[in-house]
Structures are given as C-alpha cells and as structure tokens.
Design a protein that fits this description.
mainly alpha; Putative general secretion pathway protein; transmembrane helix; Pilin-like; transmembrane; 77% helix
C-alpha cells in the first residue's frame, strides 16, 4: 500500500519573503498615490470647463430667443 509522500519541512512563506513583498508593495503604493492625486485636479478642471461651456451655450440660446 502506498500512501501520500511525506514532505519534510514546513509549507508557507518565510518572514524574509513576507517582508520583501511588503517592501515592494509599499514602494509601488508610494509611487501610485501621488500620481492619483495629480489626476484628480485635472478631472475637476475638465468638469468645471464643461459646466462653463454648457452655461455659455444656454445663455447664447436664451439671448437668441429674446
């Protein structure tokens, strides 16, 4: 009768491997957060410009009617 092979040692990650992964994730996050922060003001500006353009169009149409 043959059983499942016995594994010597333990399965899983070592503390050093976990620390390396956390360090890499921290580095990626520190690079990504400022990039996302710079993206938001540009979107706000685009939205404001669209609102102003829409308001000007509305006022132009109103001026033609009167």
């Amino acid at each position: 009768m043959t059983g499942a092979p016995v594994r010597s040692g333990t399965a899983g990650f070592s503390l050093i491997e976990m620390l390396v992964v956390l360090a890499v994730l921290g580095l990626v996050a520190s690079l990504a957060v400022p990039a996302l922060g710079n993206l938001l003001p540009g979107q706000r500006l685009d939205g404001t410009a669209s609102a102003v353009a829409g308001e000007l169009t509305r006022l132009r149409a109103q001026a033609r009617r009167t």
